[in-house]
Each structure stands twice: as C-alpha cells, then as structure tokens.
Amino acid sequence: MRDLFLIGFLAAILLAGCRRPFLFLCTYIYVDIVSPQRLSYYLLSSVPVSLIVFTACFIGWGIADDKSLAKPTPRQILLLCLLLFCGFTTLTADFPDAAQEKWDWVWKALVFTVFMPVTLYTRVRIEGILLFMLLSMSSIAVVGGAKTLAGGGGYGVLNLMVSNNSGMYESSTISTFAVCSVPLIRYMSRYSTLMPPSLFTRLYWYALMFACVLIPIGTQTRTGLLCIVLVAVLELRAARRPLLYMALLGGIVVAAIPLLPKSYTERMHTIQGYKADASAATRLAVWRWTIEYAKSHPFGGGFEAYIGNKLEVDMSYKTSDGSTVRVIGYDAGRAFHNAYFEMLGEQGYPGLAMFLLIHLIGIFRMEIVRRTYRKEAGEHAWVSPLAAALQHGHLVYLLGCSFVGIAFQPYIYFMVAVEIGFDRYVQTYVHKRVWNPFRRRRRDVEAREAAEEQRLRQLSDGSDGNGDGVDDEGAPDGSARGDHRRTQPRWGTVANK
Amino acid sequence: MIDTLSLLLAHMLLGFVALRMFVNPDLNVEPIQSGRHFKQVLPKKPTKRAGVETGEARPGSRA
User: Fold this and answer.
1) Cα radius of gyration (chain B)
2) Which chain A residues touch B if contact means CB-CB below 8 Å?
3) Which of A63, A52, A50 is nearest to A21 (CA)?
4) What angle do CA A346, A348, A350 make, to 5 degrees?
5) Are A415 and A134 in contact (CB under 8 A)?
6) Cβ distance A147 to A208 under 8 Å?
7) Cβ within 8 Å of residue A355, ≥6 positions away
8) Residue A357 in contact with residue A78, Cβ under 8 Å?
9) Chain B: nearest CA to A76, how far in angstroms?
C-alpha cells in the first residue's frame, strides 16, 4: 500500500513537471531527501528514480526555462572546480572501489548544486525549493519527534522508518539538519507566499520546529545539543523583543530539563569528560591521524581514505583521588567524524580550501544582504529575514559538521544553491544595490563598448589606422571618455573652481 | 502508525505546495514592479463651521 501511494505521488508530480518543468527540480529534492525508493518494499526500490528525475531536470530546463541568467557566479565556478578535483582524487584514490561508490552520489549532488541557481530566478521558485526541502525533511523529523514524545528515543535506537543508518536517516546527520532547518521554518511561518501565514500553517510550522528540536533528544546526539544552543543564540539576533525571547528560552530550558530522559542527560555529561569517552577519544585520534596523513598526501587520498587508518586511542582518565589511569586502545578504519577533516583527508589542502571558501563566502554574502535590507519594509520586507535564516542554518551546519562527516551531504548543497540563487535574485530584481565586488558598473561597460565601437569604426574606415586612439575630430578614445565621464563634477559642486 | 501518518502529512503538504506552484502565474516570470507609486488623494473632509453645526459660538457673537 505504501509502495502504491509513493508511486502515485511520484507519478503525479512528474506529470505536473511535464507542464511546469521546475517541478522536476522539486521532485529531485524530494527524492534525494526522503528516498522513497528506500521506503518502498519492492516496486520503487528496483528503479533508478534519482537518476531519472535528475535527467528530467536538465531536459526540462533545456526545453522550457529562461536561460538569460545562466552565467555562472564565482561560487558556482568554485563548486565546479571542487567537482573536477573530486573526480581527479577518485581516479588516484587509495581505495578505488570504495571511492567510486561515494563518487557515484557526490558528483550528482555537486552537479545539481552548480545547476540549481540557474533556475532560481523568481521568488516563487526560491520559496518552492525551500518548502520542498523543509517538507521533505519533515517526513523524517515528524516521525522522530513523535516517537521521542512517545518515549521511543535512544542513541542508535530511534527508528526513523528505515533500518539502515545512512544518508539523512543517520542519527547525527538528521539531528544537524533538523536543527539547521529551524531558522528556515521560522522564516516560512512568517513570510511564505505559497503557504501564507494562517492559524493552521503557523501551528504546523511551530509543531515542526518542536519536532526538529526533539530529534537530537530522541537520537541522543551530542552534536544536536550543541546545534540547539547555537541556533538559540543566533535567533536572538532575529528576535523582535530580545529580552522576552531570552526569558521564554530560559523558562523552556528550566521546564524541559526535569522532563528529559536520564539516559539523555547522562550522555550529554560525557561532553565534559570527553577524554574518558571512547567515541570522543577515537575521534581525536582520527583527526591527529588525518593531519599526519595530509602531510604525506597534500592532494588527499580520495574518498573513504580513512579506511587505511590505524589508531592508538588514548582514553586515560583521572580518578577521584587524583591519580591518572592510563588506558590505551587500538582501532583501525575509523571514519573522520568531522567534515573539515573529511575534506582534508579525502581531498587534501586544495579540497579543504575550496570547501571553506564555498561555505564562508555564502555566510558573508548573506550577512551583506541581511544588513542591506534590514530596515526594508513593504514588498521587500522578506529579503533580510530570508538572508538571516539561510545564514543561521548554514552556521549551524558548520558547527554540526565538526562532529559528523557530512561534507558532501546534498541537503547543505541545496542550501548553498538557494543562497547563490537568492543572492543573484536580490541583485537582479531588488532595486537597492547590494555590494558585489564582481559587479561591473554601467559607465565602465558603456565606456568599453564605446571604445570597441570606435576601434571597429577605425578599422572599417582605414583612414586612421595608426592606433593612437584619437579620431579625426581629436576626441579622446572610448576608455578616456569613460574616465572623463567619471571625473565630471556633480550638479551643484564647486570642485572645478 | 506514526510512520504512516507523518508520511501522509508530509506528502499532503508537498502536494499542496506543488499545486500552488503549478497554478502560480509568477513561477516562471518575476512580476516587475513599475516603481511608480502614487500618493492616494482622498476627498477632503468638509470643514465644519462654528455655530450652527458644532454648537460653538462664532467669534463676535454675543452668545
């Protein structure tokens, strides 16, 4: 029955995509996050749904979409470089079979991220993509939240519909992404035009926010707790009444602590005594190994390079009488458990640099947009809150990925793509200009065009071919004209006197 | 039960958003605002004259 329902839904939305090709993109996001092929038992699981929808996105865009905004932005070029570099490291990987397996989904995520901003040229599209991301994620978060409330939580115990602990269904991954979606959910509850604010929609969004916060409690991930703390601090910036917000937050924390399960509070206490905790000590050992590995492999060891590690784990701890008990463990083939070290180990220093640039530029650009439109009212009142929501979500990811190897998780790349598309949308359609180092001023463009025109005219005339850039009347050439125009005094100034 | 209900809810909302996008006239073209804003001019309120309408005494009257 579930299979038939999922197939029916997919068929309906793909059919609608034939009329409105942008819906193919939304379907791809749905397929990537929810993975209906993993939820179904026999029918969908045998069909390469993701690849079919992926191809349909490109065909739909090629046939029906506006391509005037297809010029790549610097971040898209960076993403493309990262994709090519990943391809190179896969060819030279230490473990070619394992690397090939990861490459099979990474290239799709990166290509889609490069492609998606090209299609995001209206507000409805930007919002539609974000809604599909949030609602697809909600199909996992609501299950987790409801089961946590019903008392079915626990580390590695919470059942999120599928039995295999991978992709978005992995506990630390869903914890990070659920919490990093909270600012976007808050934005949607106020400014969405596709789901306009009403009593029902607000109720749903707040319930989803609550479910997202419950996910780290249900999965008992320490990463999730840190992300919740960060999102609470960041949202203080967006709060209209900060004092009331802090008071409410304090009240919620005081009321919630006694209700938390004992296993959860015990696990969170291990954040302080991380040295005695086997999981944390192993991570530290893996990170040390990665730094050493990068020294001998500056261009990385390809995907899944961690398989080759052999670790000596120091789990020494102090007893109550002050003496140190030295405990040394040995381990091998442990995962990075950190996106930065994942990039360093797999893609080397160039990969890490590109990864950091892609994310930090995104945060920087969103800050600029947020500040520029902070006081905007009326039709553009939504711009600054969306920039803030994207930036906060991104910052939460950057914290969360310090403890989980999610450097190539598609969810964050969808967010990066939305940031790129939104940034360009703002510069195209919103009149108040945002600072952009790559924007060419109209007067410079005009001057260059005039110079080009002049040069062509001289070439065609052939009368003044000496190339001194001065025409028959002795007027300065195009570039000089541009400079001349730039130095013209404004009306009312006395600069020339 | 929880799985099925949450899946149903999420898919229902996804379907709703897809439908809203499907019928939205601004999906493929951003509506360009003209940039011209006109100040609304309302009919003036008739000024009330002192005396008969307001009951106040007119300047100069003995009442």
Assistant:
1) 31
2) 2, 5, 9, 12-13, 16, 19-20, 22-23, 26, 30, 34, 39, 65-66, 121-125, 128, 131-132, 135-136, 138-139, 142-143, 146-147, 150, 161, 194-195, 204, 379, 425, 429, 431
3) A63
4) 130
5) no
6) no
7) A82, A339, A340, A343, A347, A407
8) yes
9) 22
Quickly tell me which residue has 């800050």 as its tokens.
Answer: A367
Closest Cβ opposite residue B3 in set A143, A194, A195: A143
Confidence category of residue B28, pLDDT binned at 50, 70, 90: confident
A452 neighbors A478 (Cβ within 8 angstroms): yes
- Contact between A123 and A186 (Cβ < 8 Å): no
Task: Quick: pLDDT tens for A221-279.
Answer: 888 888 999 999 998 887 778 888 888 888 888 877 777 777 777 777 666 655 556 77
Phi, psi (degrees; rounded to nearest 5) at A313: -100, 125
Residue A472 makes CB contacts below 8 A (sequence gap 6+) with: A463, A464
pLDDT, tens digit (0-9, with 9 covering 90-100), for A139-173: 989 988 888 887 766 666 666 767 666 778 888 88
Task: Please enumerate in sequence order all residues whose Cβ is within 8 A of that of A495, keeping only pairs 6 or more positions apart, or say none.
Answer: A489
